[in-house]
């Protein structure tokens, strides 16, 4: 078992017993569900909209080379510097170089999961820069020195009291139970940072090929400020973010907001097409767009699961996932958690080390049903399981399944097994609760149904 | 064929129903025979191969599925009392045999395979079986039946016609109960937590029974409820629908 | 080979094997359109983007209405939900009067704006000191202003949004740094939905794009603390739209 798998099992074992966590997450996500359902019902045809989005993303991903070239050349024509980075370390070094050249001291950052993916903050802090996360949730988890809990709601695992304590400790603010006041404490702390920062780093939600623009979705205005005041702007995004046309946003913005947060559209959806243009009064004089591969092309090379690159990181699959709702975001130990994380992490970070995430699913399919771009998520988990076995089967398991096949395929043996089950049942019952119980992984928390005195098939035979 | 024509129905009884819940099969037989159909049950097959399939061992799954495929090749209609095994035959066999000589047979079997409630309502066109069940119940949608087979209204339409039965929906009717086959044994802590959420949601309705069309979910849920000494009981749809 | 060509080569290599079209993986249907037999026979069929009339997707989205009166009603309803202070008045003079009342109520000392016939007239009517951002400004001065007054390109009935840009709405910061953003708009700037809005934006700017175009929907907001809505996270706490 990989180290990641052991850590997952341990973390899952303790957090699933934490009823406070369970209650907090259930309450937050039920609120989300109610808002989402309300917004979904305003759609004339939700499933047709999803299908259309899936087809648009299919087009984008299956002509990725063409669209990326178009995107980059349009950006460059307006004075943006585009950097192509095959790996995480290359992207990190590119950004470190930009910041060094800019002789920056203070860096303000708006939410970017790709930056988490390449561990950008750690690298920059090691270089001696101050990096401030400006999204409220990200700001909170940064103060706690932990990764975001959820790709859209980074601090959903914390109560207002915990946040108040944190602010009191780290910022010296007075304790309060009002979310409003807590938000204002962060607002005041961050205002100065926007004005001081020399570099602003952002992520992106969509890359529009037709016009050479990135689209950034947010609610707070922190990305707007991050890209307005500092003199250098850096935008880091995965190569899969492309959309062919500007007007595709008319579909994708409502879909993303509805599925992700239960909003019609989010507060700010901003298109950036270049650094400050002639005649404009503000904005960065330099803009660097960093395109990240980091093994996305490996996922692309798997036609069966290529649609996982359609992902718009809305978080809907996490929100509805009963596994996520019980183990929480941190248990996964990955940048991308929940169903989509369980699908793509084995591709991005190694199948054998991360296959446990594909196994840790009841395959209920709630994720696939929720996904606004119709990624076949839960079937991809099945495919990952098959591929993991194909690459490196466990001989014990293989033998066990062969034995199982032999027994169920041989009626006499199958009946014999039932008979044995009937005979040993009293003994097994006595062993229940001891380490000798052969089915303790079931019986530790659940009763096992008794073997019936007369099986269905026996009844059937006797009846005729 | 008109709805009341006599059909030859082949029941597929999964191993755990055969061994632990034989009454579910018996009720199905009685219901279908009372409707005037001929019921058979091939004794040679015991499993659909889903456990190995879900664990990634597709070769071993085919060893089991191949036999099932063979024995059901001439069946007019195959009816299954579990959405999960139903999904295996209907949805996953064609995948398991994609690009293989048996692909055609797998697709043909898929066409002729029905989950029990779906078969009653959408194939036979019956909703009222004359049953009476004086209790308040809530319905749990098994995930495979719901999302792989698209079954949502059929079991409810059947329950609506049961005399003296009151159906109340729970908030998390469509949320997975946490069984998930081998998942329940490989990740028992997650499976248990999911089951607890489900049972709490069902108990909140004040129902006496949690009904489902999938015995596998019920095995897990009843196991939890009995262990925790909860008054809520589980019952398979077929047990309610049989008027005896 | 440089990094760009390396990535493009890997993409082209990967794309030599085609991927199935969306919807063709066939399983996990929505249960209103069941798989196989299911409850109803209509699944979601592929729409075919190659043949898709350009704006057909808008028919499936939330609607913005088809007459100016409907647009206005929809925009007002969306604004109320978003907590945007939307006022539709009969004349520019009435809008100025409303603006003066807000300024008095909130005790504005200094406002920020940009030069445009509408904003110039409004600032003059306010009779308060003003910072104009055109041609550059010290950020600290802008931060100290109580309100930012701008025009916009277009307003969207469907979503209650409006569009500002970095060239003709006073730059990137004016609409987001001061605590109160006031938008001056004419009725003919209100369109039905996002598709119309993007068309209007393209018609206005397509020849020479500004560096930033922002779709603003309500005042700045966050739900990051226990999913409880708080306005004014980083951007404006208040958004007022004065339309005539
Ligand atoms: S996989 Fe689908 S549901 Fe999950 S985050 Fe991506 S787009 Fe959203």
Structure description:
The complex is a heterotrimer of chains A (464), B (244) and C (244). Chain A is of the alpha/beta class and 464 residues long. Chain A folds into three domains: 1-42 and 317-393, no CATH class; 54-294, Rossmann fold, CATH 3.40.50; 402-463, no CATH class. Chain A is 55% helix and 10% strand. The longest helix of chain A is centred in the first third of the chain and has 22 residues, at 19-40. The radius of gyration of chain A is 26 Å and the shape is globular. The two termini of chain A are 51 Å apart. The model of chain A has no long low-confidence stretch (mean pLDDT 95). In chain B, the strands form two sheets. Chain B has a four-stranded parallel sheet with strand order 2-1-3-4, sandwiched between helices. In chain B, strands 6-5-7-8 form a four-stranded parallel sheet, with helices on both faces. By secondary structure, chain B is α/β, with parallel strands linked by helices. Chain B has 13 helices and eight strands. Helix content of chain B is 50%, strand content 15%. Chain B is globular. Chain C is of the alpha/beta class and 244 residues long. Chain C contains six helices and twelve strands. In chain C, the strands form three sheets. In chain C, strands 1-12-7-4-2-3 form a six-stranded parallel sheet. In chain C, strand 2 (111-113), helix 4 (117-126) and strand 3 (130-132) form a beta-alpha-beta unit. The longest helix of chain C is centred in the first third of the chain and has 15 residues, at 68-82. The radius of gyration of chain C is 23 Å and the shape is globular. Classes of the chains: A alpha/beta (464), B alpha/beta (244), C alpha/beta (244). Chains in contact: A-B, A-C, B-C. The interface between A and C is large, with 116 and 98 residues. The structure holds iron/sulfur cluster. The site of iron/sulfur cluster has 14 residues of chain A, from helix 14.
